[in-house]
From TrEMBL:
This is DNA 5'-3' helicase. Residues 184-426 form the Helicase ATP-binding domain. Its EC number is 5.6.2.3. Signal peptide: none annotated. It holds the Pfam family DEAD_2. It catalyses: ATP + H2O = ADP + phosphate + H(+). The keyword Metal-binding applies. Keywords: 4Fe-4S, ATP-binding, DNA damage, DNA repair, DNA-binding, Helicase, Hydrolase, Iron, Iron-sulfur, Isomerase, Metal-binding, Nucleotide-binding. It comes from the Bacteria. One of its GO terms (molecular function) is DNA helicase activity. Belongs to the helicase family. DinG subfamily. SUPFAM superfamilies: P-loop containing nucleoside triphosphate hydrolases. Its cofactor is [4Fe-4S] cluster.
Length: 766
């Protein structure tokens, strides 16, 4: 192969190049109810259609930049080209005078690059070119054109400057990539051999990346899914198919496991990796808004970012601690720095929100620099419920009332309009679920966000408290999600009361469509979990119905899972009063032996009623409380790691149901009281109805299967290693039917039992 063919071509669009070269400006705190993409498209078309010929809309442009070791292609689409220049159209709900200088500078830079690319194509006979940034209101279509005339050579010089800056950066990245290839070739699995199941998963993961196919893998707990997904994904970085890997988890425990695996795979830290943390946990100035006017870490952010960019390759594993350290040293926000640096990293570890939330910019930034990412989703059985949470929101009267107490009179007048709209929308409605949207409140919230910058300027002595930023964010999210909502997949819930008690919620019933849109932005998705059964349920609702599905065999023998189904006990709500006495002896027999035990209940109410009748040794028996902090929960786990004869009575589906690794004698018995069905209520019934209307088995998808997955996750705590032997007791007559219908794992050794088997103080292990 010739050297020419081997040259790598990097691609970047014009907006991303302008952003990369931005060296002045602060971070700003005002969240804005930006026009939706549909509104933006409508605004663009409306303005373009008004322009007289020979105006040319949507003109594709590109330029090739040749560096010593690679090529760079800058491309984009100009909104409009006219006889003397170009036009960049930006939809906005606020007049240009209210747009932050940082944003306006970015818009002008983008327009100048477009003009420079066209300088010798469309404007070869002109010495000067008009560059217009036309701001347009998406509803009124009012225009605010801002036109500047530049000398053609000055524009070309600006393009050269931008490309040269980007070339310097790419030279570092390219050198890193070239050095990484032989290292990846030599990279070995951290253990002497892969388990058979791990190898099967790793092979499927690698193939799915190369073929750009989504993959869902169900593999029992203990298979080693983290390494089996991360290892082939890292190996695939040397191929031309992908440029990065995002390992996303639902909980912090998943991120810890990913980092531990990365350290095993890359002990010399040659692979560039970054940890994305929440804004709250990474903030160095929590008492101030994220605004250069108030926060030193936001002030001059873009200048500082360009000054320390070279440090990116100096420290290969950027943990939250490392990012906060560099933030303190350089007075720059580590949260936003991690967001900027993530698109250049080989490996990114973070929460699912960073790709799937409506505010997530990562997938679009990746696309702008042609960074083809593979997404690894840990504990993917949670994606359905997490998706519902991501695409749901609420407007709280309490937040409005808290801000009203702190604001000056001019802002209170505007907030009063929102208060009136909220009162009208909620009037005489108590937990009422409907498909009717609160249009008046949405409009007032949108208007307030648009006016927020001007309102602050009218009150120069008012220093916006944290409640201001929280309220602006709430309004923006409320407006944004309302624009995505449709009657098939969303409902509204209204609650009246005192001003602070009023609340309107937008609730997502089926997240599949919105999740699928995110899946399809990247190269491919590899989702894995121990509990994706039944596959048709999981894949349909998590937006991966077209994915390849793989169910791996268990590494465990049936004798390791000693499962007893108590066939003659009902945990139904109608039998709740008899349940505590019915299972008292069974619970007592397990809690009195010397083995560590988890007992899971379907609710706190059930937990409280059943533990109330037990003879509890307070030194050995632990009852989960709603008020527990994360430190309290961690302390319980530490006790199980160091003591024997402990019993934890906890709630199914909570923190102890998954992500807890207590091998061998640390946890030997798991008891599950009831099938964990979600509560029957109006919302869940609306979910059932919505799914049924789409031709799905509504009851199974809303109640049966979500409960089953909670049970299987909890039961998975009992056996963690190849040498573990775990006792699992399932208490409810419905489990027999699950067994007969093939819903329980085939690798379990199951025995059906009668509650009469347990008598007072008799150990079941006898």
């Amino acid at each position: 192969m010739s050297a020419t063919c081997e040259r790598k071509t990097y691609k970047i669009n014009v907006r991303a190049l302008a952003d990369f070269c931005q060296t002045e400006g602060d971070l700003i705190s005002q969240y804005r109810a930006s026009p939706s993409s549909l509104e933006g498209q409508f605004g663009h078309r409306a303005i373009q259609n008004k322009r007289p010929k020979p105006y040319q809309p949507e003109v594709s442009v590109s330029v090739q930049w040749q560096a010593p070791h690679f090529d760079l292609r800058v491309s984009g689409r100009v909104d409009g080209v006219f006889h003397s220049g170009i036009e960049e159209i930006k939809t906005t709900r606020i007049p240009p005078s209210e747009i932050p200088p940082t944003t306006k500078a970015l818009n002008l830079s983008q327009a100048k690059i477009y003009a420079a690319i066209l300088a010798n194509q469309s404007f070869d006979n002109r010495k000067s070119i008009d560059v217009c940034v036309c701001y347009v209101h998406p509803q009124t279509l009012q225009e605010w054109p801002e036109t500047q005339t530049f000398q053609k050579q000055d524009l070309i010089d600006y393009l050269v400057l931008c490309c040269a800056r980007y070339e310097d950066w790419l030279e570092q990245k390219h050198s890193h990539f070239k050095a990484l290839i032989p290292y990846l070739d030599s990279l070995a699995f951290p253990y002497s051999a892969m388990r058979q199941e791990q190898r099967l998963m790793a092979e499927s993961a690698y193939k799915s990346i190369l073929t750009q196919k989504h993959l869902c893998v169900e593999a029992p707990t203990g298979t080693g899914k983290t390494l089996a997904s991360l290892f082939p994904a890292i190996k695939a970085l040397k191929t031309p198919v992908i440029d990065s890997v995002f390992y996303l988890s639902m909980k912090n425990t998943g991120q810890v496991a990913a980092w531990d695996s990365l350290k095993q795979l890359d002990p010399s830290a040659r692979i560039n990796a970054i940890q994305l943390s929440s804004k709250d946990s990474a903030c160095l100035s929590p008492e101030t808004p994220c605004d250069g006017e108030f926060c030193e870490f936001a002030r001059g952010y873009f200048r500082k970012r360009s000054q320390i960019r070279h440090l990116f390759f100096s420290h290969k594993h950027w943990t939250k601690a490392a990012l906060m350290e560099i933030g303190l040293e350089n007075e720059i926000c580590p949260y936003y720095l991690s967001q900027d640096w993530a698109i250049w990293s080989d490996i990114v570890v973070g929460d699912i929100n960073y790709i799937y939330d409506t505010t997530a910019v990562q997938p679009y930034l990746l696309k702008e620099i042609d960074n083809r990412a593979t997404i690894l989703i840990d504990e993917a059985h949670n994606l359905i419920e997490r998706g519902r949470m991501i695409y749901s929101t609420e407007f709280l009267g309490a937040s409005l009332q808290a801000l009203l107490k702190l604001c000056p009179s001019n802002i209170k007048k505007n907030l009063a309009k929102i208060q009136s709209a909220l009162r009208t929308c909620c009037k005489d409605k108590q937990q009422e679920i409907t498909s009717i949207s609160p249009e008046s409140l949405i409009g007032q919230a949108r208007q307030f966000v648009s006016d927020s910058a001007a309102l602050l300027r009218e009150s120069p002595s008012f220093v916006p408290p944290i409640e201001w930023q929280q309220f602006i964010f709430m309004c923006s999210r409320f407006v944004r999600l309302s624009e995505l909502a449709n009657e098939q997949d969303f409902v509204w819930r209204y609650n009246d009361g005192q001003p602070a008690d009023r609340k309107i919620e937008l609730l997502c019933l089926n997240p599949a469509t919105l999740l699928a849109q995110k899946h399809n932005i990247v190269n491919n998705v590899i989702a894995f979990s121990a509990t994706l059964t039944p596959a048709n349920y999981s894949l349909t609702l998590n937006g991966l119905s077209e994915s390849v599905y793989q169910q791996l065999p268990s590494p465990f023998s049936p004798q390791q899972h000693r499962v007893k189904i108590v066939r003659d006990v009902s945990t139904r709500y109608t039998d709740r009063n008899e349940l505590p006495q019915t299972i008292k002896n069974l619970l007592q027999s397990y809690s009195l032996n010397e083995k560590n035990t988890f007992v899971f209940f379907s609710s706190y109410l059930q937990l409280k009623s059943c533990t109330a009748v037990l003879e509890i040794n307070e030194n050995k028996c632990i009852i989960q409380q709603r008020s527990w902090t994360q430190e309290d929960k961690n302390a319980v786990i530490n006790r199980f790691k160091n003591e024997q004869g402990l019993s934890l009575f906890c709630v199914l589906g909570g923190v102890y149901s998954e992500g807890v690794d207590l091998p061998n004698a640390q946890l030997e018995q798991v008891i599950i009281v009831g099938p964990g069905l979600p509560q029957v209520n109006d919302l869940n019934n609306r979910i059932k109805m919505a799914l049924s209307q789409r031709g799905m088995p509504g009851f199974d998808y809303t109640y049966l299967f979500p409960g089953l997955q909670k049970v299987l996750q909890a039961a998975g705590r009992a056996v963690r290693t190849e040498n573990d032997i775990g006792d699992i007791v399932l208490i409810d007559d419905r489990f027999i039917q699950y067994w007969k219908n093939g819903l329980l794992p085939s690798y379990w050794h199951i025995e059906d039992c009668s509650i009469a088997k347990w008598t007072s103080h008799q150990s079941d292990s006898d």
